[in-house]
Amino acid sequence: MAPTIRAFHTDGALAGVASVALGAGLGELVGALVGGSPVAAVGSVLIDLAPPWGKDLAISLFGTGDKAALIAAVAIVLLLVGAATGLLARRSVAGAQTVVVVAGLLGVGAAVSRADASTLAAAPPVVGAAVTLLALHLLLRRATASPAPVSGPVPASPPPSEGVGHHASRREFLVWTTGAAAAGLLAAAGGWALRAGSRAVDAVRTAIALPRAPVPVVVPATADLGITGLAPVLTPTADFYRIDTALAPPQIDPATWRLRIHGLVDREVEIGWDELLALPLEESVTTLTCVSNEVGGDLVGTARWLGYPIRHLLAQAGVHADADMVLSTSADGFTAGTPLETLTDERNAILAVGMNGEPLPIAHGFPVRMVVPGLYGYVSATKWVTDLEVTRFADAEGYWISRGWAARGPIKLASRIDVPRRGAAVTAGETVIAGVAWQQHVGVRGVQVRIDDGEWQDAALATAISDDTWVQWSLPWRASAGRHTLTARAIGVDGTPQTQDAAPPAPDGATGWPSVAVTVA
Ligand SMILES: Nc1nc2c(c(=O)[nH]1)N[C@H]1C(S)=C(S)[C@@H](COP(=O)(O)O)O[C@H]1N2
Ligand SMILES: [Mo]
């Protein structure tokens, strides 16, 4: 029986190795998509934990290849743990599952402990552990189908027909095991290729020195009230909301980037990256807002953009009189339909190349995106833009329109209370209520605040950078003990207050007054 016993044990180990290879491989692929590599994270934790002599030894052994060696070592240990887990599974399935779950949790711990951890950093190790568990279960079931040794801990039914059945089912088991391991390797390789691509474009992006705008926008010091907890008037790039349909942002080398303007025009215009940068770029500060922003939500942010007015390029192309829309297309196929007049009037509707003094981050549209003051992003702010078709609303529509969103998306008058936060514990006495308000390209005349069912009180507005940006506001408040509800409403330039009617984001933007309940003690 010795050969059978060996086969039996090897099968458990093989199933374990293949399951871990599949789980870890998929984990690496997911990691490449959401940012972060579980294996590299574990390696980094080991580097942090290693005693100095360990590091010195590794460097002297592997030289500058020490990182690759470390990652290879982590991968090998992982596969060995997989083999041991597969063996253990024949004795105790629960024990084996516990090992996988603990390994997954260690992976999560390592991934989220990294300083550059993305918000989804826990996803790859969780996916990896879940896939491993599932694969282990399925592969071991196939392994169990082969005959068990007489001395084995798990009794198995005798094979239906000696020899032939055994070989057929074992061959099947080996095919599945090899397939799982190969799929894991492919996934890991795919993740590696994705990362290599993003590193390449990232390196190009980092090396770019954008020209300076001849007329920088001066943001008045009085535009920011400097209140703790209040959104800064200029949103740091790292905090800027990100919304798109891209699983992984397109990686576009500016050297290959081209924009084509065509459709209802006298002559097509094509422009490349170098030509665009050679044009007189302009700086503008514009607040972007997502139509999906709920009342009180944070899908809104303000940045300093550098770009070239789209109206000049449209003028060069010669737009036909019957056109009323520009359909912009992104490298990843997303489209937005923008009213022609918003791209030809005097507003700062631009092909943006810079955000807050740097090339656009890849996630925010590198190398070129559109920014149009006054319109929700889904009808105007196309990232990774490569094509502008001059057309008509009657003939074309953007990505979200067939999905139930309005064809026109002007930004609605809105306000938000940032301070105090919802549910905050406020100390009784002199305090402050503060927030932001916006209706891009139209402007905001004022903001009013109501405490419980009291009178509307006028808040003080900070200096607005322009009508294309949000404006901060504040109101001193002598808070008395108890529970209070604070409500705000913006006042539009024509004196009309923001509507109280509550509407959901779909189809053309949420409405209603923001309010927060706080407890004052
Ligand atoms: N290519 C592309 N561009 C896009 C989108 C998208 O899904 N794909 N989403 C739009 C939407 S809905 C918004 S609100 C803004 C958000 O821009 P941000 O991610 O830079 O904040 O991008 C717009 N541009
Ligand atoms: Mo959006």
Automatic annotation (TrEMBL):
Which molecular function terms from Gene Ontology are attached?
Answer: heme binding; molybdopterin cofactor binding; sulfite oxidase activity
Q: Which residues form a coiled coil?
A: none
Q: Which SUPFAM superfamilies match?
A: E set domains, Oxidoreductase molybdopterin-binding domain
Stretches with biased composition (Low complexity) = 495-512
In the record, biological process GO terms are: sulfur compound metabolic process
Q: Which Pfam family is one of those matched by this entry?
A: Oxidored_molyb
Q: Where is this region: Disordered?
A: 146-165, 493-513
Compositional bias of type Pro residues: which residue ranges?
150-161
Q: Which Gene3D superfamilies match?
A: 2.60.40.650, Oxidoreductase, molybdopterin-binding domain (3.90.420.10)
> Domain of life here?
Bacteria
Q: What is the protein's given name?
A: Oxidoreductase
Which organism encodes this protein?
Microbacterium dextranolyticum
